[in-house]
Amino acid sequence: MVAFISTSCSTESVLIHHDDATFSKAQKHFQKMGKELDKINPPLAERNIFLQAEGFYQYRFSPPKKSSAKYLAEAASAITDFPGFQSLAGSLDMEDLRFRASDSAVQLWETLLKKYPNTTLKPITLYQLGWAYRNVGAQGLPRSSPDEAFNELIKEEPNSKWAKLAIDAKKVPYKTKEEAGFRSLIPGMGQMYLGETQSGFTRLGIAIAGLIAVAVPVYNAAHGHHNALSSTALGLGGLIILSFDFTNSYEDAIHGVVQWNERAESEFQRTHRNAP
Question: What is the pTM of this model?
Answer without folding.
Answer: 0.83
